[in-house]
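hey so i finally got around to running the thing on that chain from the lab meeting. sorry it took forever, my laptop kept dying and i had to restart like 3 times. anyway pasting the input first so we r on the same page abt which one it is
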Amino acid sequence: MPILHVSTNVKDVDIPSDFQANLSSVFQKAIGKPEKYIMVHLLPNQMMMFGGSREPLAKVDLASIGNLGVEENKVLTQVISAELGKIGIKPDRIVVVFKDIAAQDAGWNNTTFAFSKEPV
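ok and heres what got predicted. didnt touch it at all, straight out
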């Protein structure tokens, strides 16, 4: 159930129509979970500033049940930054916040993942 929540000040008109699907695909490969559980929430047009500048930037919140850690997070940051670079955001203008969630703390399909028979 990995969730990738991207807030950016990049305008929606400057984001290709296939960007979100491509981001989902590369995120799925990097985190190693079935794509049917991958959620990508893209919020363009946000009023954001980083380092005193309104140049293109993004704040990324990434939550997952496992598959996160020191080395995994480095790879995920690189993959996400490469994709966001395609819409004009430089790596030093991207902040990624990771949250490893316990299975019982994520609900889906009328239960939680702790009780789901699905692999997450």
